[in-house]
Each structure stands twice: as C-alpha cells, then as structure tokens.
Amino acid sequence: MKRYTLILIATAALAACNVRRNDKVVDDAVQQKATALLDTTVVQLIDSLYNFGKVTEGEKVTYNFRFKNVGTKPMVITSTSASCGCTVPEKPEKPILPGETSFIKVVFNSQGKVGPNQKTVTVMANTKPAFPPLILTGDVTAAK
Predict the structure, then answer these.
(1) Do 86 and 113 have their domain in common?
(2) Are residues 58 and 122 in the same domain?
C-alpha cells in the first residue's frame, strides 16, 4: 500500500512540474507581446482622407490608405475597426519595418447608404502618438 501511495505522490509531483512549465510558456508569450507593444514607433500618414465623390447605391468603394513607418522599431498593427458595418478595413498581417511603406485596405458598401457619408477607421498599433483616424467620405445617390 505504501508503494502505491509513493507512486501516486511521485506522479502528482511530476504533473505539477509540467503545469508550471506550461504556465511559464504562456507567461513568456504574453510578456513578449507586451514588450513589442512597449517598443513604440512613429507613423507618417500618406493618405488620411479619401473623398470617393458620388457613387450609385450598391456600388463598393475600395481604397488603400498608405502610411510609412518613420520610427526606429517595427510597427505592429494589432487591430482595425470601422464606424459602421458597411465599411471593412483590412490590416497588414506582418510588421512594417522602419522606413517601409504599407497600406490599410478599406471597402465601403454603399447599399442602403443614400446621401452624404463619412466613415472613420480606427487603427490600433504600437505608435506614439497614436495612429490618426482614417476618413472615407462621399455621396451615395439612389439607384434608378
């Protein structure tokens, strides 16, 4: 009976060591991500406002807002969001190295949006000052 108790205790101790190892791996990954976000860089917008003019209801407007990393650290864009579900931004997946130019693709679906429109895209990145908002504006006319 003592032998079984000893084996059970030894197994539990080994399992506990493995759990601690897994926690350390997760903690390291969180720490690396936090460190990357603390390494801020500077963004220079090439395009911050796009006026698509007049389009007919139902048309999709696509535009690439360009920007450049003018800082000394790689730029990591963590998320993009739009002020309306009719506007879909797509962020670059890879970090933008210092000196590189990249873009955020934005698609606006004008279906049901007759009249003047202004949509704002918010970008979260490791930039300081914060990434300025991107603005898409124009008029949608009713389909005939």
Answers:
(1) yes
(2) yes
List C-alpha distances in Å: 10 to 14, 19, 124. Answer: 6, 15, 48
What are 115's two structure tokens?
A: 């009249």
Max CA-CA distance within the chain?
Answer: 88
What's the domain range around 8? 1-38
Q: Are 65 and 121 in contact (CB under 8 A)?
A: yes
Looking at the structure, do residues 10 and 52 belong to the same domain, yes or no? Answer: no
Residue located via tokens 């003047």:
116
Q: 131-140 burial, b if ≥16 CB within 10 A, otherwise e? A: beebbbebeb
Residues 60 and 131 in one domain: yes
Domains identified in the chain, total number = 2
**CA-to-CA separations, 71 to 45, 64, 104, 126, in angstroms, rounded:** 13, 21, 18, 11
Look up tokens 């917008």; give the residue: 45
Query: Tens digits of per-residue pLDDT, 55-104?
Result: 999 999 999 999 999 999 999 999 999 999 999 999 999 999 999 999 99
pLDDT at 20 over 50: no
31 plus 49 within the same structural domain: no
